[in-house]
Amino acid sequence: MKKKHVPADNREGVIVAHYGVAVDVLFAEDNTRSMIRVKRNSGHVVGDKVVIKEEVLTRLERSSELSRMDARGGRHIVGANLDVLCIVVSCEPLPPPGFIDRAIVSARAAHLRPVLIVNKSDLPCSADYLAAIESVYKKSLKIFTMSAEHGTGLEPLVTFFSEGHRGVFVGPTGVGKSSILNALLPKINLTTGEISETKKRGRNTTTVSTLHLLSDGGELIDSPGFNDFGLVDISAEQLSTYFPGFEEAGRQACRFRDCKHREEPECRVIELVDQGGIDTARYTIYLQMLTEVEALQIEPDYRERRHRRKKT
Ligand SMILES: Nc1nc2c(ncn2[C@@H]2O[C@H](COP(=O)(O)OP(=O)(O)OP(=O)(O)O)[C@@H](O)[C@H]2O)c(=O)[nH]1
Ligand SMILES: [Mg+2]
Fold this sequence. Notes:
- The structure is a single chain.
- By secondary structure, the protein is of the alpha/beta class.
- It has 3 domains: about 10-60, SH3 type barrels, CATH 2.30.30; about 65-220, P-loop containing nucleotide triphosphate hydrolases (Rossmann fold); about 235-310, Probable gtpase engc, domain 3 (Ribonucleotide Reductase Protein R1, domain 1, Orthogonal Bundle), CATH 1.10.40.50.
- The protein is built from 9 helices and 13 strands.
- It has helices at about 100-110, 125-135, 155-160, 175-185, 195-200, 235-240, 270-275, 280-300, 300-310; strands spanning about 10-20, 20-25, 30-35, 50-55, 55-60, 65-70, 75-80, 85-90, 115-120, 145, 165-170, 210-215, 220.
- The strands form 3 sheets. A 6-stranded mixed sheet has the order 10-9-8-11-13-12, with helices on both faces.
- Strand 1 and strand 2 form a beta hairpin.
- Guanosine-5'-triphosphate binds near residues 175 and 194.
């Protein structure tokens, strides 16, 4: 097939890595890459589609954008133009409480499909941990289990991504995000870290997000680990719809369309809690998140104040 001519100064590409004052852009037309200068804090993120004209980079409109907030109230865009969020966890180190629920709610609110990846299936603690994860999340989302170290269990993830998805790995530092990508694409050789050291120093091994094309199709972004998945601009209504475990109850099943499942009459969620269909501990977590979301709606700096209070 004849190759389409692409003018050198008007090319469309995708940002595959971001280095502060420069971005690495991949041009799909001829599979070439270029480093393009950008202003610090330019707001570009990995996954952004861009057009380069006379060395100037213009970002094209995003089809999706996933954000999170850190404990100090700082907003971060996790990725752009994604359709899947891969929440990577392991039994060592464990994710902080609430991490998985917040990630799922954020992904659903941003119209991304969340999936769970339980890595380190080779560790003795893994079987119990996987059983606990499955008992809570099995009905809510797809769960992959694998060992990046042994290269086992990767196939279902490869098949899933070959449908043409673009996803990002998120998870605490040390769960093995980069190791999984190395197992999928041995040639990329991403740096991975010793857990004991990482935990002691609390430092990330991966410091920049990078996008990788998978051999069988699909794209995956490796990202630096983080612990805070603070909700950004999530309404109480979104939380009450997207909280994992409430899918079966369904919004339509409650008497009120905007039911927050707290004390409203004829609430299907409360009914299920009373009947044992929804675990009381899960419902308590939901109520805590609801209080937080409502507080953030009234008082946007609520999280920052709470963080300051915790430190003193
Ligand atoms: N036992 C076991 N160890 C693993 C597995 N996958 C990764 N590790 C180890 O876990 C440690 C951390 O792995 P990384 O891939 O650097 O973790 P990461 O999630 O990318 O960490 P950050 O880049 O800091 O966010 C390394 O010592 C890996 O060798 C696994 O499947 N089993
Ligand atoms: Mg890493």
